[in-house]
Design brief:
The complex is a heterodimer of chains A (253) and B (461). Chain A has 253 residues and is an alpha/beta fold. Chain A has 2 domains: 94 residues, Methionine synthase domain (Methyltransferase, Methionine Synthase (B12-binding Domains), Chain A, domain 1, Orthogonal Bundle), CATH 1.10.1240; 130 residues, Cobalamin-binding domain (Rossmann fold). Chain A has 12 helices and 5 strands. In chain A, helix 3 crosses helix 5, helix 5 packs antiparallel against helix 6 and helix 8 packs across helix 9. By secondary structure, chain B is α/β, with parallel strands linked by helices. Classes of the chains: A alpha/beta (253), B alpha/beta (461).
Chain lengths: 253, 461
Amino acid sequence: MDIDPSKILVRYNVQKEKAQTPEELAAEMYPKEEPARTIAAAIFDGEEDDVIEGLEKAIEGGADAIKLIDDVLMPGMKIVTDLYDQGVIFLPNVMMSADAMLEGIEFCKDQSGSVPKPKGKVVCHVAEGDVHDIGKTIVAALLRAAGYEVVDLGRDVPVDEVIAAVKKESPMMVTGTALMTTTMYAFKEINDRLLESGMKVPFQCGGGAVNQDFVTTYELGIYGEEAADAPKMAAAILSGKGLAQLKEMFHKH
Amino acid sequence: MVKRYTSQAYKAADDMVFGKSVYPVKSELGLEVGAGYVTAEVNYAPRPEAGVSKEKLVSEYRRLTTDILARAVQIGFPAISLETEHVEQMTNNPTWGGEIAHVQKTILEEYHEEYGIKCGLRHTPGDIREDRDLLALIGPKYDKLMESFEAVADGGADFLSIETMGGKEILDYSVLRNDVPGFIYSIGCLGGMDMEMIWTDIRKIADKKGRIAAGDTDCAQANTAMFIAGGLLDKNLAHTLAIIARTIAASRTLVGYEAGAQGPGKDCGYENTIVKSITGCPIAQEGKTATCAHADVMGNLTMQVCDLWSNESVEYHGEFGGTSVQCWSQTLSMDAALMNVATETGNAKLLRDMFMLSDRYRDPQGYILAYDNAYKIGSAIVKDGNDLYLRAKNAAIETVNLLTAADNKKLVMSKFELNALADAKAALEALTDETDTFMSDCLEKYKAEEPRFKPEANYKF
């Protein structure tokens, strides 16, 4: 038995696909001048060696290593994340580009001997009792790719450790991910302990069993449905959005 | 050494149908799985606040078990099976899991005695073999896990299962980098090695306690790929790559049976149609009834050859129609009733094909898991059944071949999916046929690239 599936199925994703390839769209977005163009292309392709080679040439040509981070590497990565946001490229491309871009940043830091100023600091963790951390890995990579410093506490992180890290690092945002219903309960405790300590830091929560209904039961909680929401939320905080506005922006249901 | 499968239990794909397996299994309270009828397998998760103490957890499971059985007899279902997937406290404290199994089994016995309803109980300890930052597959956590299996078997669980995580440290790395050889290494090779160790021991416990070593699922890896791939509009992983991870997972899940598992295979093992074609053992599956847990593109197709029909997991809470477990158990049982009507009226194969066709062309995953193609993947696996690397590679190559040969007017793939497929094909064609070479190359590569990979400690390299 077989069927013509056109009566029972519509492939909207194929209908909506852009005529241009991702490579063609990216090429239109690369900066015109060199070496920024070559380095941006290397970031898009996720080619670490080519990124370093381009940076070496730029530094040999007199460019300031730290300025290259802001003027070349970050804009190059933004092309990738913009194309991801537009649905043109997929997450693994972003991860591979981020690997290449971060290697480039390390190279520039080594060359200059100084450290660039990040946009802000974010503490990331997976809830106590939970070892499912691929979501947190993606969140951390996307935040780093967007220019934020990430303090990655890892997985199965006790509440005390999260609180201590927030006290020590004074982050602009905390993220928590959990896969299981029982482990996500730790988020409420983190919220209460932060409030007790007078630290009203936005607490982005997401992952597996976490849903908006649960996150709205505690004051600092903002629901992040997608990992890609993390850098957008950080950017919103930088632009001055408070808790209520963040909830307005990111609570979708 | 275990005995590997080098042939398939079914002579032809068309011989496979829901509710029937070559080797049915029977629970203590009369439930026969794969013996000619399909039964609901209800899954559930405690509410978040129930995890704070043993007493609260036991109470939660007592309530939800009673709810499920009460609804089953109210509506008149002849059989029901329950699966308790442990929250970590229940496995890390084996007496907790054991007591909950005992409480649940006691309720099943009461209903069985009073109404004659056939019942089964599966317990699935969590794979706790991890330290804070690293997998710890061998050592004290392994011993604790085995204690948990002993405790739930003593408590009355008929079917023993687990969702093991061997190889996950490499899969998590490779799935975010479109690294198909990494899928083969993590799922097919590392996962397979871990499966052989753990399922040999689970079978020993099952034999000692008079229980059934049921089966595993590659939830930790192939489902990670499937969830990341998501819906048709999602942009996180090509569905062509997700199905390659899935078919490799069939080779891995098969190892559980080679080491002593007898079925029913775990519900979220979407690779189970392939596995059933090889083992002939009964399987649980989930699909549209698992939308309470996650959204995936196969809703009906997964019913095609299932023996238990599951809802994956639902949080225990109230709905308009009763508690969540009552609503979902009724839905599952009604689906099972439809399948059993088809069997009784001689229409099982017709209904099977309708289930299959409703999702066959939805995406590459449904296309490959359609039972006729799944059977072909099974054939590719057993062709080199004695070699974990070669059979996983065969599964991946056959997947690419089937997708490439598909009617592109019916199975419509996006450019992205086709490009990812072409890249995967090139990566597979570049692979060696020498297992030792592949294993040593991967060992070197991933030791350098993934600091969480501890081959000596976890895989006895």
